[in-house]
Amino acid sequence: MHPPGTDPSRRGSVHPRPLSDGVVHQYAENLDLVYELKPSAESRDKPYKINRFGMRDQEYALQKPANTIRIAVIGDSVAFGHQIPVEDTFEHLLEDKLNATSDVHFEVLNFSVVGYNSRQEEIVLKDKVLPFEPDYLLIGVCLNDETQSDGLGELARQMHPKAWGSRLHSRLVSTMLNRWERSSARRRKDFTQINHLFATAKQLGERQGFEPIVLNFPYHFTSLEEYKPKWRAQQETIETYARDNGVASIDFMLLWKDHDAVTRQNFYLKDDRKHFSREGMQQIADVLYERFSGSRED
Q1: Could you give the C-alpha distances from 187 to 44, 80, 168, 190, 265, in angstroms and in order?
Q2: What is the sign, positive or negative, of the torsion defined by CA atoms of 90, 93, 97, 103?
Q3: Do residues 72 and 33 lie in contact, with contact meaning Cβ atoms separated by under 8 Å?
Q4: Domain 68-147+189-292 carries which CATH code?
Q5: Which of 72, 148, 145 is nearest to 112 (CA)?
Q6: 28-38: per-residue pLDDT in tens?
Q7: CA 232 vs CA 4, 183, 236, 280, 291: distances in Å
Q8: Cross-strand bridge partners of residue 25
Q9: Which residues neighbour 85 within 8 Å (Cβ) at sequence distance 6 or greater?
Q10: Hey, what's the torsion of the CAs at 12, 17, 20, 22, to 10 degrees?
């Protein structure tokens, strides 16, 4: 996958070409964020439409309306709703179900971005979520959040207008830097960055008046006994981090362990061990509905 705004077939200058109308990403001013969703963008080949605030969501006012409970979501492609229509995401399903049964109005705002890791999500929380004054923060955690950045982020960093490759007008420099960063990132996997995100969310929640809740998403597994020991250990570590920071957590590995293999397979996209289908998103929305259906405005 090539980074947003670049064309791998071009030779010579590596200055990124202008982003086309079909690209939903843009380079971020914050180099640690690398890239972000482009406000009001719409993809031509995927079911992605971005609102004016750079969220894959409907339009919302920045100021929270009266009699409204706001639930913000941060995460990567799993919470974003990779390859599925927005109406099939758990955020959309949850918002619809809550508003159909409650006198209090609910808004579920999806700040998730494909490829983000916990460090980037922490930036999103501080810079983008807080101005919306959420009452709850859902932190969607996937087991690959230990990485420094994914392939899109690595390459986008090197092709960023402020990166060395672009400054030197050298595709070779960009390519070599990207190869080095990929190799280095694999050696620098740091699962504790998830812990840091939880600690930050807890501190900001106490200061700003919102409750963080971790959504611990598993990879697909045929049975708990056959779940890879590494993945199971990571799931348990995420639970430990949440508990140590005083953050509530929902472990979907344990919630789904008693489903039969066929049912659980249907929670995921075909030939995809990580991303959820509409059925999986509905399961997540139903669990969250039970948690929030009794919520009332303070």
Answers
A1: 36, 27, 27, 9, 32
A2: positive
A3: no
A4: 3.40.50.1110
A5: 72
A6: 888 888 899 99
A7: 34, 25, 6, 19, 25
A8: 37
A9: 47
A10: 60
- Classify residue 158 by its DSSP letter: H
- Which one-letter DSSP state was computed for residue 127? I
Among the listed residues 88, 49, 149, the one whose alpha carbon sits nearest the alpha carbon of residue 276: 88
Inter-residue contact 235 to 243 (CB < 8 Å): no
H/E element holding 183?
Answer: helix 171-187
Per residue of the chain (298 residues), give pLDDT as tens: 333 443 333 333 333 433 344 568 888 888 888 899 999 998 888 889 999 999 999 999 999 999 999 999 999 999 999 999 999 999 999 999 999 999 999 999 999 999 899 999 999 999 999 999 999 999 999 988 766 655 566 666 666 777 766 666 666 766 676 666 666 555 556 789 999 999 999 999 999 999 999 999 999 999 989 899 999 999 999 999 999 999 999 999 999 999 999 999 999 999 999 999 999 999 999 999 999 987 544 4
Q: Which two tokens stand for residue 277?
A: 């289908």
Judge contact between 212 and 139, C-beta under 8 A: yes
Give the residue from 157, 23, 159, 140 showing the smallest Cα distance to 80. Answer: 140
| Domain extents in the chain | 68-147+189-292
The tens digit of pLDDT for each residue in 238-292 reads: 999 999 999 999 999 999 999 999 999 999 999 999 999 999 999 999 999 999 9
Tokens of 61: 């006012």
